[in-house]
Design brief:
Number of helices: 5
Structural class: alpha+beta
Order of helices and strands: EEEEHEHHHEEHE
Distance between the termini: 25 Å
Largest sheet: 8 strands, antiparallel
Helix content: 10-25%
Strand order of the largest sheet: 4-1-3-2-8-5-7-6
CATH topology of the domain at 55-181: Alpha-Beta Plaits
Length: about 180
């Protein structure tokens, strides 16, 4: 199984788009559905209106105790009750990327408390981070979230807290795409 994922926006896929809003920067073309495929985009025959590609990797800003805590609490994706999802592509600005890893970590954790905020919403909200910057994609990260409908308000609160943090001062582009699972 590949660690590459392709998110194909078009008229096919298991996930029906319920909203597609630009939070910061330019929007993505509106589509009816998203197909999430565990393959590199170079292998796709149907490319829809757009394709976003990323790969899963290690947690780059997390320390061992944070990783252990996340892994002990977070549930996996594809849970039967998790019929709601969000795809949130994010691009950070040049100032963010000009900083060293430890400077970014200080903003990410010490000032923004990113992991602490996320932990407060587990296990109800599952997530998977996909890295894109290193493969020349238009976004730096694609974050995929899944949750049950009754946890939608919790998910909105999670986003609200993250977007109010110091880290979000470095976001140049963010799209919030909400989805419901078909079938």
């Amino acid at each position: 199984m590949s660690n590459y994922y392709s998110f194909v926006g078009g008229d096919e896929g298991l996930w029906r788009v319920t909203s597609n809003e630009a939070v910061v920067g330019d929007p993505l073309e509106k589509v009816e559905r998203i197909n999430v495929l565990n393959v590199p985009s170079s292998t796709l025959t149907n490319r829809g209106a757009w394709v976003l590609q990323g790969f899963t990797s290690n947690l780059r800003y997390a320390e061992r105790h944070e990783v252990d805590k996340l892994q002990s609490i977070q549930e996996g994706l594809n849970r039967p009750a998790a019929t709601c999802a969000a795809l949130i592509p994010i691009k950070k600005n040049a100032t963010w990327w000009a900083m060293s890893q430890d400077e970014r970590r200080k903003i990410f954790e010490a000032q923004s408390h990113h992991t602490e905020i996320g932990l407060a919403f587990l296990p109800e909200i599952a997530r998977q981070l996909h890295h894109c910057r290193d493969i020349g994609e238009p976004f730096d990260f694609l974050t995929w979230f899944e949750f049950a409908p009754e946890h939608t308000e919790s998910f909105n609160e999670l986003l609200s807290q993250l977007r109010a943090s110091k880290e979000w001062e470095f976001v140049d582009r963010e799209i919030d795409i909400r989805l419901n699972k078909l079938g």
